[in-house]
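Regression test case RT-17, inverse folding.

Input:
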């Protein structure tokens, strides 16, 4: 049997019971953090609009996530590389995140909301970057695609639960979805910390080179590695699309199409079913055919699907686009990190994860901001939806522009 055949056999093998349990437990914080961040990015804009904020200000408020990623992602990931365990970062950051999320529901002004968002995302990146680096530490490369599909399934569930329940909970009171999300997040993190095999979470600490040297190393990697540069640009574009969608989807439905908040949450949750379907399918396909080919096909379908509600502002158009947008979004939520794992060095998982989040940060900052500006500029063009239709054009452009960079990554891989 050739080495290629052996590798394909390993890629297609079934997961062992211990691996299934590990992936299930390892994904719990993804569920918790996805639920928490989705509540912030989806329902804080609704509160901000009640404060009289324009679509551009709403975009700036949610863009804080990207700004905090640029400031904290690399230091948090690099510091975790120099510790024998990454779990203390989760233990330190999560309580601050939980408390801030609960307090966010009490916001009565843009100033309060801004302070809460800054503290929330600071705690999020302190916890999340070291946590995410546990995947290359603990999951074998041959099941990396399925590991990421499991994580993305948790992410999808967290997103679905937040959006589906948030609209209904918001009708009970402004603070209710934020407090409920904080409780669920706290319980999930506690279960993760008590069930994860601590001995497997430990890794050999890297040398203490200092943060300045870490940044030099990152710059050197980016300068000399065309594949990493292509990945960063593509990933930033994917996150720009996701960030714009999460920020304005509820306002698009409620303000643009006149749907009630509760019904809008249910509608988005229905669309998110396609996200849930995409995560296991895309992970299995990526392990079988390769991550890049699967993403190339999915991105084209995803981008073209979002042009439907861009050109046609109606509930029928969004219903037609939902399967394409949901499935494409599920792929984009599932596979990028699996694409990055083979590009990582053995001793810098946390540092490279920080690089991944820098590209995410640029996208999550620019996506909501560009979409907010587009809504304001095109209000007169799309007067039937008060400009919110423009969001889909921004999202489609970001996705379709990423395809050439993904092709370049494949050429250089």
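Golden output:
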């Amino acid at each position: 049997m050739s080495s290629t055949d052996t590798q394909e056999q390993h890629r297609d093998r079934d997961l062992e019971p211990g691996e299934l349990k590990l992936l299930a437990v390892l994904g719990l914080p993804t569920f918790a953090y996805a639920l928490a961040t989705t509540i912030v990015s989806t329902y804080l804009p609704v509160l901000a609009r009640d404060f009289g904020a324009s679509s551009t200000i709403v975009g700036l408020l949610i863009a804080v996530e990207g700004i905090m990623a640029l400031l904290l992602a690399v230091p948090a990931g690099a510091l975790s590389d120099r510790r024998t365990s990454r779990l203390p970062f989760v233990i330190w950051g999560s309580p601050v995140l939980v408390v801030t999320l609960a307090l966010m529901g009490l916001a009565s002004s843009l100033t309060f909301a801004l302070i809460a968002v800054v503290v929330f995302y600071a705690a999020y990146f302190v916890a999340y970057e070291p946590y995410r680096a546990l995947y290359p530490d603990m999951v074998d490369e041959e099941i990396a695609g399925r590991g990421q599909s499991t994580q993305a399934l948790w992410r999808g569930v967290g997103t679905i639960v937040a959006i589906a329940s948030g609209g209904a909970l918001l009708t009970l009171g402004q603070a209710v979805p934020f407090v409920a999300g904080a409780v669920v997040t706290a319980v999930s993190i506690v279960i993760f910390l008590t069930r994860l095999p601590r001995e497997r979470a430990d890794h050999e600490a890297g040398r203490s080179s200092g943060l300045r040297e870490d940044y030099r190393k990152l710059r050197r990697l980016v300068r000399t590695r065309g594949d990493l540069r292509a990945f960063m640009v593509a990933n930033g574009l994917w996150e720009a699309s996701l960030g714009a969608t999460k920020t304005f989807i509820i306002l698009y439905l409620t303000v643009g199409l006149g749907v009630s908040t509760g019904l809008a949450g249910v509608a988005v949750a229905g669309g998110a079913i396609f996200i849930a379907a995409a995560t296991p399918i895309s992970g299995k396909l990526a392990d079988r055919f390769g991550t890049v080919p699967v993403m190339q096909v999915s991105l084209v379908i995803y981008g073209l699907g979002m042009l439907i509600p861009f050109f046609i502002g109606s509930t029928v158009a969004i219903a037609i686009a939902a399967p394409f947008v949901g499935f494409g979004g599920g792929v984009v939520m599932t596979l990028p990190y699996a694409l990055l794992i083979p590009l990582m060095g053995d001793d810098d998982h946390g540092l490279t994860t920080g690089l991944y989040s820098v590209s995410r940060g640029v996208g999550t900052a620019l996506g909501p901001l560009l979409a907010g500006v587009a809504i304001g500029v095109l209000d007169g063009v799309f007067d039937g939806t008060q400009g919110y239709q423009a969001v889909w054009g921004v999202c489609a452009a970001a996705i379709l522009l990423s395809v050439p960079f993904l092709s370049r990554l494949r050429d250089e891989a």
